[in-house]
Amino acid sequence: MNKKVFIFMLACMLFLVIPKPSFAATENPDIYIKVNGVTLISLDSMYMENGTALVYYRFFFESLGMTVDLDHSTGRIQVFDGGESEPLLTLWLDSKKVSYKGKNWTLPVPVRRIGNLTYIPVRSIGELLGYQVQFNKAEQIICLTKKIPGESDKISPVLDAFFKEGQVNPSREIFSDSGWEDYRGFEPEIGVPFNFLPLLTSSFKVNDIIYLSENHAFVKVSYASSSAVFKREIDFTFSVTKKKQDWKLSGFYMGNTRHEMAEGAREEGAAVALQAKEAASVMADLEKYSQAWKDDNAAAILQSTSPVYINEYEAATGVRYENALSYQSSLYNKKRASETFIPYLSDDHAVVYVSELQTDVDDDGKLVKVQVDTLIRMDKTEDGRWTVHSKLELVDFWLAFSL
Fold first, then answer.
1. Digit-coded pLDDT (tens) for 90-140
2. Cis peptide bond upstream of 198, omega within 30
3. How far apart are CA 132 and CA 350, in angstroms?
4. Cβ atoms within 10 Å of 240's Cβ, excluding its own
């Protein structure tokens, strides 16, 4: 055999048996990302490779109001912002190449597949998107900041339209399609208009506008209102999205409620005092309903459930309601997270606001505690009892943040 051919074949054999070098990524589950003051909370770990922080790509981009598309056959990741048809960013698995607005750039480390998730270098991608990136070593937080001047003046009219003349009075034009459907879902469930009429007074104040991208923002608003029985203040967080230069509401969340008995409930005579007494009856019967679920007492649950709801359920499903109770009790492993209050109360109808800690299971099968704000519709029966008709849990998946 020719000596040169033998050496070449030997080299090929050695290449096949020598393992390729692997990258070393160190898990850092306690490092967080903060974008313009908003701490992003992810159940997925962060990794460090040669001093470069890697984060789960879908969580990062969707936290900025963007959408992503991963083609598993080619390993191509496309990132879209603001509903645009052309991708803002294009990345590839196991590659340092990234295309941003049609121009190619090089990342310090490749896009990595770790376990069954894909990770990207957060500093390089953040800087491409125009953010200043700093690492607060003491607090173990990666801070991304970017100022977008002039847009707050364009967002405020959308909120003015939502809280028109001091009332929650939206029109379809101020919502994106998904936001409109979310809003309209409230009224048939709770049985009264979302602004909980009748109100004596109401007003709102924008507390802060937190920008996460040029086309997506979160707005924190305090909404104060009063009825004959209660004064209350609710902190809203609105999701606002820009499409074709127009800002529209795409979702909202209620939280951090504060309330007190209105002065009229103490001082304006028997009629208002009677309504305040009725509010106490609503709360007492709601406690009986909750306890019935905790005890898994089917008879007590039936007694505490609105006959109207039971009839609606059985007509819609063809199943007797008492036969459908057995599998539901596990859903009531809950603890009260804050005080309950009544936004709306009439002679035969009430809406109760409850904030609870619920036990849930994350994507990794771990038990986690989730705070859920719930609106409960209650009906009064002919024999004077307050019964639960339906519950509406105010949870939006886009709100994966600690505000």
1. 999 999 999 998 899 999 999 999 888 899 999 999 999 889 999 887 888
2. yes
3. 49
4. 26
pTM, to two decimals: 0.61
Token pair in block for residue 135: 């690492």
Q: Which of 77, 39, 86 is nearest to 58 (CA)?
A: 77
Residues facing residue 49 across a β-bridge: 52
Assign residue 134 a region: left if phi > 0, alpha if psi is -120 to 50, beta otherwise? beta
Helix (H) or strand (E) holding 183: helix 177-184
Q: What does the pLDDT read at residue 125?
A: 93
Q: Which helix (H) or strand (E) holds 187?
A: helix 186-190
CB 401 within 8 A of CB 216: no
C-alpha to C-alpha distance for 63 and 33, rounded to whole angstroms = 10
Is the CA virtual torsion 313, 317, 322, 324 positive or negative? negative
* Nearest one of 203, 217, 204, 213 to 152, comparing CA atoms: 217
Task: Please report, in angstroms and rounded to a whole number, the separation of the first and last CA atoms in the chain.
Answer: 74
- Return d(Cα 158, Cα 170) in angstroms, integer: 9
- Tell me the pLDDT tens digit for each residue of 66-104: 889 999 899 999 998 766 778 889 999 999 999 998 899
SS3 string, 343-378, reads EEECCCEEEEEEEEEEEEECCCCCEEEEEEEEEEEE
Q: What is the bridge-based pairing of β-strands 201-213 and 246-261?
A: unpaired
| Token reading at 114 | 């770790």
Q: Alpha helix locations (H) across 227-365?
A: 263-267, 270-294, 298-304, 307-317
Segment holding 180, helix H or strand E:
helix 177-184
**How many angstroms separate the CA atoms of 280 and 292, rounded?**
19
Q: Sort 382 into a burial class: Cβ within 10 Å, 0-12 / 13-18 / 19+.
A: exposed
Closest CA to 389 of 341, 351, 355: 351
- Token pair for 254: 């209620």
- pLDDT single digits (tens) 6-60: 333 434 433 333 343 355 667 766 778 888 777 776 667 788 888 888 988 988 8
Find where tokens 């390729």 sit: 20
Amino acid type, 182: D
Would you list the DSSP string of 328-345?
TGGGG-EEE-S--EEEEE
* β 141-145/32-35 pair status: parallel
Adjacent-strand bridge partners of 93: 111
